[in-house]
Design brief:
With 163 residues, this protein is of the alpha/beta class. The N and C termini lie far apart (137 Å). The protein is built from two helices and ten strands, in the order βαβββββαββββ. The strands form four sheets. The chain has a three-stranded mixed β-sheet with strand order 2-5-3, with helices on one face. It has a three-stranded mixed β-sheet with strand order 7-10-8, with helices on one face. The chain is rod-shaped and about 135 Å long.
Length: 163
């Protein structure tokens, strides 16, 4: 019996295919597969980023093709800025410039001037994921204590003598 040699096949192009589609195409072409994962800013999660060997390369049938699947964009972190002492509008602008998301404000009385941020939900200089929702506490100013008004004393003209 004379051997005809190893049968070769071409690695199919499965880039940007879903994981399931890629596996099916590789199996139909006569290959085994091994899955690895990597972050990608350009390829949707659960879709193929690359294969090894690359698409179009000849490979012996039954060989393993390594398929790299996207986990989506890598999580980026930013350093939380200090917002205390800024006005609410300034603080929101600073959050946006750091790719953080303004969530909500709670207004409370404090000795600080009205409209000034006195607390933030994440401490300054902490590393946080981009787009984290940040809550602010803003001063409404010091508590106003009412000044008691003097009670008028009866005058002889208004005193009816208890009648």
């Amino acid at each position: 019996t004379v051997s005809t040699g190893v049968r070769q096949a071409t690695v199919p192009d499965v880039l940007n295919h879903s994981r399931q589609e890629a596996i099916l195409e590789l199996q139909n072409a006569g290959f085994k597969y091994e899955i690895t994962q990597a972050a990608s800013d350009t390829v949707t999660a659960d879709y193929v980023i690359s294969t090894d060997p690359a698409a179009g390369e000849p490979l012996a049938e039954g060989s393993t093709v390594i398929v790299t699947i996207s986990t989506g964009p890598a999580e980026r972190t930013v350093t939380m800025p200090n917002l205390v002492g800024y006005t609410q509008d300034e603080a929101i602008s600073i959050l946006q410039s750091h790719n953080l998301t303004y969530a909500d404000t709670t207004y409370i009385e404090s000795e600080q001037e009205a409209g000034v941020v006195i607390r933030q939900s994440i401490n300054a200089n902490e590393e946080v994921a981009e787009h984290t929702r940040i809550y602010l506490w803003v001063s409404t100013g010091p508590a106003v204590t009412p000044t008691p008004e003097p009670t008028p004393e009866p005058t002889p003209e208004t005193d009816d003598g208890g009648r």
